[in-house]
Amino acid sequence: MRKYFGTDGIRRIANTELSPNLVYRVAKAGAYVLSKHTDHTPTILIGRDTRISGTLIESAMVAGFLSYGANVKILGVLPTPGVAYLTKKLKADASVVISASHNTYEFNGVKYFSNKGMKIPDELEEEIEEVMDSGKLDDFSAVNEKIGVSEIRTDLLDEYVYFFRKNFEEDFEKLDMSNFVVAIDTANGATSVVAEKVFSALGIKHYILNNTPNGTNINDNCGSTHLDVLKKYVVENKCNLGIAYDGDGDRCLAVDENGNEIDGDIILAVISNYMKEKGKLNKNTLVATVMSNLGLKKYAQENNINFEETKVGDRYVLEKMLKEGYNLGGEQSGHIIMLDYNPTGDGILTSLMLTKIILEKNVSASKVCDIINIYPQVLVNAKVSSEKKYDYDKDEEIKKEIEKLEKEFSENGRVLIRPSGTEPLVRVMIEGTDKEYIGTKAKELAKLIEEKLN
């Protein structure tokens, strides 16, 4: 089991668990592992979100990279997919995003991307951990003229804006947008520096919310994890669509004109349906995770779309897509990967695709989303001891209760239990036809897991 990396990089409380010393070691070991096969001085990009600890972590990372002898381009605040895009475009050797995604401001994290702009696989993360703890880090110190140099390249933000113009400008110019208004919630996060520029450049009328980051208000009652403010705003201001990003901008959820949530599963249905109509859905296949709603699977069956499932984590969705040659996949949380554009989830890209589909079809957002029937789904987090979160299936009483529920919901629903990759939690998810009943059952099971694993 990995010591530092979870399902989405390293994520911890900044400046205590995620100390500058740990970050320095992660950087130096990462620079070695990701560039040991190159015959040139490696170049590594660094982007971050708006957390107060961002520049602290960035400084420690820069020091680690320069100490190894890598050159660094500091991108400043930029969404995760923007960093991924620039890594490929600039032919950098690797990149890092400093972010804790949808978590509150006191957390921060480190996510590595390869020279292809993709999250690095588990094996490379394990290798980085081995190097970190091997006692050999000092052997990788550059000396004299080999020490790396860094440069500030916040101007590269414009390249990311151009990426959207290049892919969508002509499409939107042909559409009637005169009566279409979008409300955009940037979660006081990384998209706060770019979303308004993109929507303005494409001529889409918009209101912008939660776009004044102060270091501590990222994801604070806003963004894709807190949709209530956006729902109210969309209805009160008669918007056609509401869009919410998470802290680092790789996720997007939406709200229709009536204030109803459009989650990642619904977005996947809408986009896959559109791509199938256009003959652009590779191998007629959609990739999602085991956490996706049963309704998405049934939608795929009813529309003759192949449905491939992976374990939870957008990296596993991407691995499946690359291996099998598929071009659309994602998660219920709003990570949508469209490989024809970018090899990572991109919140702004997802929102533009959704906007384009609604405008092209010339119907309301709610009408576009009518193609899928979402089953009630309840997710309850059981707070457990960090060391015991993987032991839920070893306890006989817990196992017995899970088996009983699985039998009960085998016809019209399902039960899914999984430990969180980033927090001391076991997630209990039950799907069924009666929301109140499945809620009670999920809480009962979560309580039992908490009693047994603390």
Q: Main beta sheet, described?
A: 6 strands, mixed
- Mean pLDDT equals 95
User: How many beta-strand runs?
Assistant: 18
Query: Strand sequence of the main sheet, in spatial order?
Result: 1-5-4-2-3-6
Shape: globular
Question: How would you name the CATH homologous superfamily of the largest domain?
Answer: Alpha-D-Glucose-1,6-Bisphosphate, subunit A, domain 3
The CATH architecture name of the largest domain reads 3-Layer(aba) Sandwich
- In the CATH scheme, what's the topology name of the largest domain? Alpha-D-Glucose-1,6-Bisphosphate, Chain A, domain 3
Please indicate the percent range of residues in DSSP E strands (runs of 2 or more).
15-25%
- Rg, rounded, reads 22 Å
**Ends distance:** 20 Å
Report low-confidence residues grouped into runs of 5 or more: none
Number of structural domains:
3
CATH class descriptor of the largest domain: Alpha Beta
